[in-house]
Specification:
The chain is α+β, with helices and mostly antiparallel strands and 240 residues long. The chain has a domain at 1-147. Helices cover 32% and strands 14% of the residues. The strands form two sheets. Strands 3-4-5 form a three-stranded antiparallel beta sheet, with no helix packed on it. It has a two-stranded parallel ribbon with strand order 1-2. A hairpin with a 5-residue loop joins β3 and β4 (93-103). It is elongated, with a radius of gyration of 25 Å. 12% of the residues are buried. Residues 69, 71-72, 74, 103, 106-107, 111 line the site of zinc ion. Residues 69, 71-72, 74, 103, 106-107, 111 line the site of zinc ion (ZN).
């Protein structure tokens, strides 16, 4: 899974939250992330025709999956998450993510107690990070910007294209992965070239310096110089 690879590349450091489109909005993905303590920012998706069009509140949590006070039904304040280790009756061991919270406006002695819910009872609703948190909302908004990249890869490198001429006659996703990996490789070479890498194996030199235009003029000069070296671009116009 993509998250496993991201964790490995990141030295095992878990992200606070991951974002995705409706394709990921299924119980198993929510469950997997929640078990790792990672929140999932995916749009709500009906699992079947009998499910409501929007998330619905229950006695335990509201329509955003945020727990309600189990005594008065009022709003709550987040306290912490924890992973409980449990041994089942058949001897199997399992980890259960649990969330602790307290009543925001206590009206009875029961309200003042620490309360908790298990996060995997309905993992598509309850998240380790609440949907009202700034980080969650920022992730929901910024996700649309990354979606553009899929289209760009499709246009530039025909990654996952709707193109019958390059579609192989056999089943399998290995060739799709190969094309996608090659495209990412070419993208990286391009990024490194723009940062001044000359293919020598030395560290990247000539990174843009902080300037009033964010280094844009410097980068443009670098690109033009490189194009001239390869004989592909006319010399820059000089202002009279
Ligand atoms: Zn209460």
């Amino acid at each position: 899974m993509g998250l496993d690879r991201a964790l490995a590349n990141n030295g095992g450091v878990k992200p606070l939250i991951v974002a995705g489109d409706k394709g990921y909005s299924v119980k198993s993905v929510f469950e997997y992330n929640t078990n790792l303590g990672v929140a999932s920012a995916f749009p709500y998706r009906r699992w079947n025709q009998t499910e409501p069009v929007h998330r619905q509140p229950t006695d335990l949590y509201d329509e955003h999956g945020i727990p309600r006070c189990q005594s008065c039904g009022g709003e709550t304040r987040f306290l912490s998450n924890a992973i409980e280790h449990r041994v089942l009756a058949d001897g199997q061991e399992t980890n259960v993510p649990r969330q602790w919270f307290t009543c925001k406006l206590p009206t009875s002695p029961a309200c003042k107690k620490k309360q908790s819910i298990t996060l995997t009872a309905n993992p598509r609703y309850t998240l380790p990070l609440w949907r009202t948190e700034e980080a969650y909302l920022a992730m929901r908004v910024s996700h649309h910007l990354y979606e553009r990249k899929h289209r760009q890869m499709r246009m530039n490198f025909l990654v996952g294209p709707d193109d019958k001429s390059i579609r192989p006659k056999r089943f399998g996703r290995a060739w799709i992965q190969l094309r996608a990996s090659a495209a990412v490789f070419v993208e990286w070479i391009r990024v490194l070239a723009r940062c001044g890498w000359d293919g020598s194996g030395e560290s990247v030199v000539g990174l843009p310096r902080p300037t009033s235009d964010g280094g844009a003029t410097h980068r443009l000069a670098q690109v033009r110089a490189r194009r001239r070296q390869s004989g592909g671009d006319p010399p820059p116009a000089v202002a009279a």
